[in-house]
Amino acid sequence: MNRTVKLILDIVMGTVIPILILDNLNEQLGTVTTYVVAALVPVAWIFIDLFFITKRFNFITSYVAAFAIGRGLLAFWFVDGIQFAFKDSVSSLFAVMIFGISIIIRKPIIQYFLMQGLGPDSPQEEKSLKGLLKEPKVYRSLVNGTKLVLIIALLTGIANFFLNLHIVVADFGTTAFNQQVAQVNAITRIALTIPELASIGIAAAYIRRAMFYYLPKEKDKDQSESDFWDLLQLREIEKTAADS
To answer: Are 150 and 103 in contact (CB under 8 A)?
Structure first.
């Protein structure tokens, strides 16, 4: 599927449709059913994407699936007030916990996202990539990148908590509650996603720079013009020649 189409579908299924459901179907479905349906639409979309569109089962999809399962279960925790604000911020806390643990055990989680994103096609490519990621500057960039994403996730989680606490003040099971949830979602699902994506982009650029520090250059070519895997293969050839 085209990436642009996929992004549009993610926004529509993850944000637009749930908001429309919360705003418009309370009389037809009842307030509680409307809330549950709206909460489960993004979860269902993630699994449809996983099993029928992307059809990829790896570290990234496992992480996303675990996140979706958690969101699905939380949909049936019917609370309001400060408890709802906490519930809606659990996903950020989950990310902070996972990223934090990965730093503590010295296996920065961004490393696994990176490996899945680069997608080595052979055991040799995977071995070469792992060797590159162990280089001091690269490893340090992975740790710092993970810390950056963790900090932003923590800050957006705090912002999400207080926005929910301030906006969603009605009792659960009322039309006003659902409409207030739709209102806060319209803000948080867009505004808070921007810094999260920005942090990932900054981390990726930082890590890329560190990786290319250890990669050779092809003759008469700038590194940016060369294929990453070609440079990694050339690095292995040069290492073998130096060791022999």
So the answer is: yes
Helix boundaries (H) for the chain: 3-11, 17-24, 26-29, 31-48, 59-74, 81-104, 110-118, 123-133, 136-167, 175-191, 193-213, 228-243
* pTM beyond 0.85: yes
**67 shares its domain with 82:** no
Q: What is the pLDDT of residues 99-118, one digit of tens each?
A: 999 999 999 999 999 998 89
Q: Based on the domain organization, do 137 and 67 belong to the same domain?
A: no
C-beta of residue 145 within 8 angstroms of C-beta of residue 176: no
First to last CA, the chain: 46
Are 206 and 239 found together in one domain?
A: yes
Copy the structure tokens of residue 110.
Answer: 């961004």
Place of tokens 């982009």: 201
Who's near 122: CB < 8 A, 6+ residues apart?
Answer: none
The tens digit of pLDDT for each residue in 76-89 reads 999 999 999 999 99
Are residues 51 and 70 located together in one domain of the fold?
yes
**Domain boundaries, position 99:** 78-216+224-244
Residue 125 near residue 72, CB atoms below 8 Å: no
